[in-house]
Design brief:
This protein is about 25% helix and about 35% strand. By secondary structure, it is an alpha+beta fold. The strands form 2 sheets. It has a 5-stranded mixed sheet with strand order 2-3-4-5-6. A hairpin with a 6-residue loop joins β4 (about 50-65) and β5. Bound molecules: zinc ion (2 copies).
Length: about 180
């Protein structure tokens, strides 16, 4: 869904949109929407600058970094983002363009703000950096691929916790 910038005023108006899982590509293979994401907020305009603030709610399915098991995660993000016209941004001297980037201003094109883009960005920003099904997830056996949360596999184990394996590799590199 898009908002026509021309239609906005300084006083603003409420904005609501629904983003169906099949239509919103999160561009992250580990993350999927399991129900429509909803945006509720307010859109205001001051000259060429559009400000959108409000709340996005979504239900996600995130694959665990260690064992790949998908886990459901409800998400609620508050946002407050300003947009400037890409034509204005492109015409601005380079230092103004950089300043706009510094201030976290996004750009809109063709006189319309793309809400799909906003929702995608806000969801990705709100994701945890460590995506684990649970804190103590044991992950997969590096040899046979068995899910170690379900029990030990029959592989010989060097008794190296997978969490320390990366560290051990680093030490090895230091020696050589
Ligand atoms: Zn896991
Ligand atoms: Zn194994």
């Amino acid at each position: 869904m898009r908002i026509e910038v021309e239609s906005l005023t300084e006083a603003g108006r409420p904005v609501e949109s629904v983003h169906e899982p099949g239509r919103l590509d999160l561009e992250d293979e580990q993350v999927r929407l399991v129900s429509p994401a909803r945006l509720e907020g307010r859109a205001r305009r001051k000259g060429e600058e559009v400000r959108l603030s409000g709340k996005i709610t979504a239900e996600l399915e995130i694959d665990c970094d260690r064992c790949l098991t998908p886990t459901r995660a409800p998400l609620e993000v508050e946002f407050d983002t300003s947009f400037i016209s890409s034509e204005v941004a492109a015409g601005a001297p380079e230092n103004v363009e950089l300043l706009a980037e510094d201030m976290g201003l996004a750009a809109y094109e063709g006189g319309e703000v793309d809400l799909d883009e906003l929702v995608r960005e806000q969801i990705l920003l709100a994701l945890p950096t460590r995506r684990l099904c649970r804190e103590e997830c044991r992950g997969l056996c590096p040899h046979c691929g068995a899910d170690l949360n379900a029990g030990d596999c029959s592989c010989e184990r060097g008794e190296v916790d997978p969490r320390w394996a990366a560290l051990a590799d680093l030490k090895k590199d230091e020696k050589t």
